[in-house]
Write a structure and sequence with these properties.
Radius of gyration: 24 Å
Number of helices: 1
GO cellular component, one term: extracellular region
GO molecular function: steroid binding
Number of domains: 2
Keywords: Disulfide bond, Glycoprotein, Lipid-binding, Repeat, Secreted, Signal, Steroid-binding
Subcellular location: Secreted
Oligomer: single chain
Pfam family, one: Laminin_G_1
Length: about 400
């Protein structure tokens, strides 16, 4: 991920109402207050939690293991996140499979020696892929869709070594300190795992959440807002230059959106800019200061350019549909924005308050700010928002 988006200012405080959607996956209890599910369950990896903690995990005695092979299906548009973890000796020796830039990344620690390797096909294409991880003497092998093998030769495993004790497995997180890994990455993934066959065992897995959120049956690229929260950035992460202005581009079916798409607020000032879709009137309204522009919601792309003496809204790259506002009542507004807030999917109020009825419902297929894709994983956001996929 580009460092451009990582320069978020410290100390951003945001109180979000954690109102989940009532989604659930049936599970059994285990007498310890934890629900249990089958290893073949559908697991949405992006569910709200401590982002490094697994969603499901299990422990098995080595005496029960007959096959050092696990397989499962993965579907994601997200280029980065942890998928599968396993360890022995209570975390002294461990294995992590993740995605980095959409490519499989395996990291292994054995007897204090660390090895990592990345390669294979791009997996963040939104299609279901079958992954199989196996251990064959001195090699750990990853197969994707029956081929495209990624092999790690550790050179550390003795054929005479007798494994004993317990093996821990986890999906969607790790059970060790993240600092132990060679390659650091953002852990939470907007993706799904299903049809798991873990070491050919049928033991149940413990669930760390009260309920597992299910996966959408069909997905498309984008960021999905279910009407329960928003994402917020410090505008200081965006290079705003008065001479060249500030440009935001939004893609999606605006006729299927309802609520606040975008709002911007400078520190200590009233809300300066909003973009709101209204399904009832079938209009999209842009408000800047006390001035408004209303547009029919039939377009699929909107480019908003903020300049010192002009604000322009261009629909579907059709120059005949360019609307303008001259911000004479806000001289120097671009300078004040540099320490402000930009919210996607909600209306900024006093402090960081928002009006619940103003949350966006709908899919933004793509968001760009200053010509760069906006990654909502790097925002402070409500956990119900899917950063990389929308229901299709």
């Amino acid at each position: 991920m580009a460092m451009f988006w990582k320069a978020m200012a410290d100390g951003l405080l945001l109180t979000l109402s954690i109102t989940l959607l009532g989604w659930g996956v049936e599970g059994q209890g285990n007498g310890r207050g934890k629900k249990e599910v089958s290893g073949r369950a559908n697991v949405y990896l992006g569910q709200d939690r401590d982002i490094w903690r697994p969603l499901i995990h299990t422990t098995v005695n080595f005496s029960e293991i007959r096959s050092i092979k696990s397989s499962f299906q993965l579907r994601t548009f997200d280029p980065e996140g942890v998928i599968f973890y396993g360890d022995t000796k209570n975390g002294e020796d461990w294995f992590v499979l993740s995605l980095k830039d959409g490519i499989p990344l395996m990291q292994i620690s054995k007897n204090g020696i660390l090895v990592s390797v990345a390669g294979g096909p791009q997996l963040n294409d939104g299609k279901w892929h079958t992954l199989e991880v196996s251990n064959q003497e001195q090699f750990v092998i990853l197969e994707v869709d029956g081929s495209n093998r990624l092999v790690v030769g550790t050179g550390m495993l003795s054929k005479q070594e007798v494994l004993s004790g317990e093996l821990r497995l986890a999906v969607g997180g790790i059970l060790i300190n993240k600092e132990k890994m060679i390659v650091q990455f953002e852990p939470q993934m907007d993706g799904c795992v299903r049809e798991g066959s873990w070491l050919n065992l049928t033991i149940p897995w413990e669930v760390e959440a009260e309920e597992l959120w299910p996966c959408y049956q069909h997905v498309q690229p984008g960021s999905y807002f279910p009407g329960t929260g928003f994402a917020i950035f410090n505008t200081s992460v965006f290079p705003i230059e008065a001479d060249h202005g500030f440009k935001t581009e939004l893609w999606g079916d605006f006729s299927k959106m309802h609520g606040t798409i975008l709002s911007i607020k400078a520190p200590g000032q009233e809300l300066m800019f909003t973009l709101v879709a209204n399904n009832n009137t079938q209009e999209v309204t842009l408000t800047f200061g006390g001035e408004k522009i209303s547009m029919r919601d039939t377009f699929k792309r909107l480019v908003i350019t903020f300049q010192t003496d002009l604000l322009q809204a261009l629909q579907d790259e059709d120059q005949s549909k360019t609307l303008s506002i001259s911000p004479l009542s806000h001289p120097g507004y671009l300078t004040t924005w540099r320490e402000g807030r930009l919210a996607v999917g909600g209306l900024l109020g006093e402090g960081e308050d928002v009006v619940g009825s103003e949350f966006l419902t709908g899919c933004l297929e793509k968001i760009q700010v200053q010509g760069r894709d906006l990654d909502l994983d790097l925002a402070v956001k409500h956990p119900s928002i899917s950063s990389h996929s929308c229901p299709a």
